[in-house]
Amino acid sequence: MAGQNYITSSCVISNNAVRKDGRELFAVEAGNTVDFLTEAYKQSGINYSRFYKMDNLSKLGWLASELLLQDIFTKENYRPEEVGVVLSNSNASLDVDLRYMESVRDIASPSLFVYTLPNIVTGEICIRNGFKGEDAFFVFDKFNASFIETYVSNLLDNGNLQACICGWVDFIGNDYKAALFLVEKIETENGLPFTAENMDKLFEDKPKEHGVFIAGVGIISAIGNNVAETLASFEAEHAGMGDITGMDTIHKGELPVAEVKLSNEQLARMTGLPQNISRTTLLGLVAAQEALQDAAIPDIDQWRTGFVSANTVGGMDKSEAFFVDFIKDNDKGKLRNIFDHECGSVTEKVAKELDITNYMTTISTACSSSANAIFYAARLIKNDVLDIVIAGGTESLTKFTLNGFNTLMILDKEFCKPFDENRHGLNLGEGAGYLVLVSDRVAETLTKPLYCKLSGYNNSNDAYHQTASSPDGTGSYLAMEKALKKAGLSTNDIDYINLHGTGTPNNDSAEGTAIKRLFDPYYPPMSSTKSFTGHTLGASGGIEAVFSVLAIKHGFIYPNLRFETQMEELPFSPETKFSKGNEIDHVMSNSFGFGGNCTSLIFSRI
Amino acid sequence: MPDVFVVSDNIFSPIGKTTAENFARLKDGASGIKLHQNDFATQPYYAALFSEDVSIDPQYTKFEQLLISSIADALTNSDVDPKNKRTLLILSTTKGNISLLETEEYNAGLKKRISLPSSAELVANHFGFVNQPVVVSNACISGIMAIITGKRLIQAGQYDHVVVAGADVISKFVLSGFQAFQAVSSQPCRPFDAERDGITLGEGAATVILSNQHGEIAIKAAGGAVSNDANHLSAPSRTGQELAQAINATLKEAGTKEVDFISAHGTATLYNDEMEAKAVNLAGLQNVPLNSLKGQYGHTLGAAGLIESVVSIRSMREGVLIPTMGFNHQGTPDALNIYKQNLHGDYKNCLKIASGFGGCNAAVLFIKE
Predict the structure, then answer these.
(1) Is the pLDDT score of A1 beyond 50?
(2) Per-residue pLDDT averaged across A94-121, rounded?
(3) Which phi and psi (to 5°) does residue A63 adopt?
(4) Which terminus of chain B has a smaller tally of CB atoms within 10 A, N or C?
(5) CATH H superfamily, domain A212-604
(6) Which of A357, A360, A352 is nearest to A377 (CA)?
(7) The domain spanning residue B16 has which CATH number?
(8) Among the options A11, A164, A343, A367, which is catalytic?
(9) How far is the C-alpha of B4 from the C-alpha of B160, rounded, in Å?
(10) Is A367 a catalytic residue?
(11) Domain that holds residue B284
């Protein structure tokens, strides 16, 4: 009767890292998957001239087999016919099939054609090691550990083999994964019983990283002073734009804006802050307080809590008021009105009111500011610097921004029409949006259900122009693509995209082109909620992150108001009706800013 | 361990749509190989291709249609129920839907459409198989490997019945590749002949239904083994030792040394046939009647091992061995017993062998009880 079989070694190559027996051997910084293979080969220190002849699948499988066998396998213990190789994957040899097909247009390449069979990788491993036992290659849509267990156990138990390399090796375009297991009949110090469960565990093993979960949300904008009011406006498809009321400007009645429907006096009463404080701070505190109350974390003092807040305008509203008197007479004007002029002061004020002292910082990267704040907060948690972070951004309307955007000629005199063929520009808005992000350790202690997790994020630069996006949306494309990769998702997994969608001809064209390049031919529902809130600049990423989180929680898809005509250059159009009860597992939220600063966040159902 | 029997089969090829039709035509000396001229190549080429439209339903590709037609016929001749949770589907192919790359633009949708698991799911759903199908893609030994896999899974007690089907379709992708290798014969291929100069490609499908119960005549899949040359990716072993190793392991598992005839791989390339002759000699089987059916079917790649197994099983049932078409004079240094006319007799043990790219070899022994 058969004895016990053991996994005496394992090697997993994925996510730019090589792990052996569950521990990281080395990681490689590489721009693309092909560079990764070459770099990993160099780092392995193994010298084998055939490597450079191989196709990508063989390179990956061969390299994994070398590292698998290194320091543990004694070839002399076995006769050649006693060692076999049983591998599997989902894409067969498609990676090289595509390359071969390219060559056929010119001169069919025999050296590529030989690799157009998935089992060639087993051949490479056999040639390298002189293994002459059974080799087999199976194709499954995902790693089928129980099939491999049955098949390989059978070979070992019936005496066909004494040792077997088995597992998974898949390579297609930008995706790759190898997970190889050495199975022998001997028990070793680190050996694990050869079972499907143990293979699955090693297959899924990821570098130690803390999860990041969303425990609370808070928001104030032109469509509501809290989450409940906001959702009611969405359901009623009620936009927040209107004539300017809060600022004394010549553009009154000419340029619509999306104002928060509360005066500074009302905001001050709500928050208990003095009236002479910047509106940016007042708005920030309202939303941050709501988020923290919503999270309802008991004994918050026992955790390391931080505040990462974004804005672009700081206390400019107060500085503008000061300036009116000061310009006439440099001895005039009350200096106490400009003490929180700079962006960091807004963050400090709010953090003080929230009683957060462990950590605070301000991020100001134009219109992607608060998406970057959330991104940064996630990294603080993942790297075990903090346990809880309130992250997002705040922004108030000022003459400074209104006149600035007006000189760029990107303001629409009507209510904006994002992603419409006949769009003319954006409407400015104001508000604040914050998330409470918590680590898995904190999450375990909470009784209130979590909203979702932050599964992916990326920041990439467009490297094109200070205030215009590149025609093919390079930065947006990279941010979305890499955020998906970080989340381990494909475009098909995204159920809703909250677009940056400012309504300017340039942004929507570049963003749309990038989406087309990445998602074609299957497009998820998408919309720009700036058609409700206006463009709240440094707060927009935070506000739209709140919308994204609520979309997962309630199954919402928000409409893109006033959309009429599909853009000629795009094969898709945004959603125009509010709907609820949708199955939404993954939401992508885009925020792209001046300076080419592009950020995508992905929120996922837990 | 339970015995495993072949309870039904089918060949769906340019020669015929059922095993009976194929075998009747083979006995009459038919071949599916013809001269073709189409977009796949600039020059006319010999191949065994379907001349008629095989479509049954536009949602399936030609590859899937061949599989479905073959499986459907094999199922009608057996009691095996695909919806039984003790029944598994195993598919064998080398390139599946790869011809789609020639006509469609590559994108995420096509990537999924081309993938073998997608085809397997479509075919499985067509018949209502409840278990997730297994796909074997192991170059030219895929068909035999699929039979061996099915046999082992039944013996391991995982399933009672396994439907094993294989198919490949010839298109520009495959033809241009073998042409780039200078491996395609300028004439209909001539296995083991002194004048052989390469392969002729063919397309088709075949099905073998395995079960732990048997019908009137019990044909047992008694042994099977696989080996690797560990020598070269596209050239066979110089010694034939590794194929001989697979043959010996197969006979050992079957517990017999009796072999009444051999169905060889016999692709008609210089090196394959030479290696096979060496291996058969090393195994001491050089006097056993041996054929290659590549002269009739061409090299049907992932279907070859299955088509040739089904013909061999039929030979045992009817007591008629089919000769090697295109063979005139011995062309291998090591002698073989290759016959030129139909042979008649009582044949109880058939050895089927194959070898493929990647250095793989496989053997399976069928016994009529």
Answers:
(1) no
(2) 95
(3) -60, -45
(4) N
(5) Thiolase/Chalcone synthase (3.40.47.10)
(6) A360
(7) 3.40.47.10
(8) A367
(9) 9
(10) yes
(11) 223-368
CB-CB under 8 Å, A85 with B233: no
Q: Are strands B5-12 and B219-228 parallel, antiparallel or unpaired?
A: antiparallel
Which of A227-238 are b and which e, b meaning 16 or more Cβ less than 10 Å from the residue's Cβ?
Answer: beebbebbeeee
Q: Using alpha carbons, select from B290, B182, B305 the residue that is nearest to residue A113.
A: B182
How far apart CA B88 and CA A262 sit, in angstroms, is 67
Phi, psi of A406 (to 5 degrees): -65, -40
- Give me the percent of chain B exceeding a pLDDT of 90: 95
* Structural tokens at position A290: 């709501």
Q: What is the pLDDT of residue A467?
A: 87
Answer whether B368's CB lies under 8 Å from B348's CB.
yes
Give the phi and the psi of residue B44 in degrees, each rounded to 5: -60, 150
Q: Is residue A184's pLDDT more than 70?
A: yes
Q: Where a domain ends, among B180, B211, B242?
A: B211
Which tokens in the block code for residue B298? 């061409």
pLDDT in tens, B8-58: 999 999 999 999 999 999 999 999 999 999 988 989 999 999 998 888 899
DSSP reduced 3-state for B97: coil
pLDDT given at position A2: 54
Inter-chain touch A139–B117, beta carbons under 8 Å = yes
CATH number of A6-204: 3.40.47.10
Which pLDDT tens digit goes with each residue over B64-83? Answer: 999 999 999 999 999 999 99
How far is it, in rounded angstroms, from Cα A65 to Cα B319? 48
Task: Give the burial class of B190: count Cβ atoms within 10 A of its Cβ; 0-12 exposed, 13-18 middle, 19 or more buried.
Answer: buried
DSSP, collapsed to helix, strand or coil, labels residue B42 as: coil
Torsion of the alpha carbons at A277, A282, A288 and A292, rounded to the nearest 10: 80
Surface-to-core class of residue A38, CB atoms within 10 Å of its CB (0-12 exposed, 13-18 middle, 19+ buried): middle
Domain count of the fold of chain B: 2
Q: Do the beta carbons of residue A20 and residue A67 sit within 8 Å?
A: yes
Give the number of other CB atoms < 10 A from CB of residue B235: 14
**Among candidate residues B355, B144, B151, the one with its CA nearest the CA of residue B253:** B151
Q: Which of A106-115, A207-216, A273-282, A527-536 has the lowest mean pLDDT?
A: A207-216
Is B207 among the domain residues?
Answer: yes
Catalytic residue among A11, A164, A166, A535: A535
Residues of B in contact with A135 (CB under 8 A): 138, 226, 228, 358-360
- The reply to whether A212-604 shares the fold of A6-204 is yes
Does A137 contact B242 at a Cβ distance shorter than 8 Å? Answer: no
Q: Mutate which of A95, A107, A119, A170 to disrupt the B interface (most B C-beta within 10 Å)?
A: A119
- Cβ contact (<8 Å) for A90 and B111? no
Whether A535 is catalytic: yes
- Catalytic status, residue A251: no
HSE of A554, CA atoms in CB hemisphere, 13 A:
18
Same domain as B191, residue B332: no
The single residue listed with the structure tokens 């992000």 is: A437
Could you state, in order of their start, the residue ranges of all structural domains in chain A? Answer: 6-204, 212-604
Is residue A299 over pLDDT 90?
Answer: no
Residues A470, A464 contacting (CB under 8 angstroms): yes
pLDDT band at A188 (very low <50, low <70, confident <90, very high): confident
Instruction: Report the alpha-carbon angle B63-B214-B209, nearest 5.
Output: 5
Q: Would you tell me which residues 211-240 of chain B have a C-beta closer than 8 angstroms to some C-beta of chain A?
A: 225-234
Q: CA-CA distance, A416 to B131, in Å (whole number)? A: 53
Whether B173 and chain A come into contact, CB under 8 Å, resolves to: yes
Q: pTM for the complete prediction?
A: 0.65
Report chain A's mean pLDDT, rounded to a whole number: 94
Given a contact cutoff of 8 angstroms between Cβ atoms, the answer to whether A602 and A588 are in contact is yes
**pLDDT score at A337:** 77
Q: Are B68 and B163 in contact (CB under 8 A)?
A: no
